Amino acid sequence: MRALLFDLDGVLYQSDCVIEGAIETLQWCERRKIPHLFVTNTSSKPRGALVERLSTMGLSVSAQQIFAPPIAARDYLAAHDATPLALFVREATREDFAGLEVLDDAANEGAGSVVIGDIGAAWNFATLNRAFRLLMAEPRPVLIALGMSRYAQGSDGLVLDVAPFIKALEHASGCEAVVMGKPAREFFDAAVRKLGTSSAQTVMIGDDIRGDVGGAQAAGLVGVLVRTGKFRAGDLEGDIRPDAVLDSIADLPQWWENGAS
């Protein structure tokens, strides 16, 4: 193995607390000069805010090291001229789409693309129905999913993430979403290209058995599951078999030195 992809939430930190050993593991990675990126399905915050949040927890990560769905989506939408955008994202995340034409938030038609991110408790019937109406208008826009995580670990328990709302919109409109994030193969392929390695030489470290491990394995990467974040014991009883299971990110250096490399 030559390179690493790290999930963020649930692997390096949980809520506002850094996971024990995460700082030391990243320092080990830097000392060993192992190429690495941080891949996340987080669409509730722009990349700059993620860097700032990580810094407050003692995690030194640059913006260029973070590969997130809004960044991938912006590149895709600009290349495919799928504007104006109907953005269903949090206000702060809109900065990652600066420079692209954005549809008025009250419009029910006229979108070149409908971009769905994590807006948490802002989801209600009216909001979901507006996204549906936009997708049904002619000419039909592109449905963009900023990740396809089913749920996340919140401060007070598990919370729904983007995928359930995407699935509802796909079912009702007949559209198939273009996924910008895990577990889409294209997302992993793009991350590996940025690392300059190959899929077979790259290890994905995550807490989501499907989005992180299953998605990585389907793209030809090694998938390693950590028992932190959203991990549940039942994850090990399904159809996806991790290449390795670690108690936490703190165990990565020893696992790597004992034979992963």
Protein model, in words:
With 261 residues, the chain is an alpha/beta fold. It folds into two domains: 3-68 and 182-260, Rossmann fold; 75-179, HAD superfamily/HAD-like (Rossmann fold, 3-Layer(aba) Sandwich), CATH 3.40.50. Helix content is 33%, strand content 19%. The chain is built from eight helices and 14 strands. It has a six-stranded parallel β-sheet. The protein has a four-stranded parallel β-sheet with strand order 6-7-8-11, sandwiched between helices. It has a two-stranded antiparallel ribbon with strand order 2-3. α7 (209-218) links the parallel β12 (202-206) and β13 (222-226). α4 crosses α5 (163-173). The chain is globular, with a radius of gyration of 18 Å. It starts with a strand and ends with a helix.
Helix content: 25-40%
Number of domains: 2
- Going by CATH, the architecture of the largest domain would be 3-Layer(aba) Sandwich
CATH class of the largest domain reads Alpha Beta
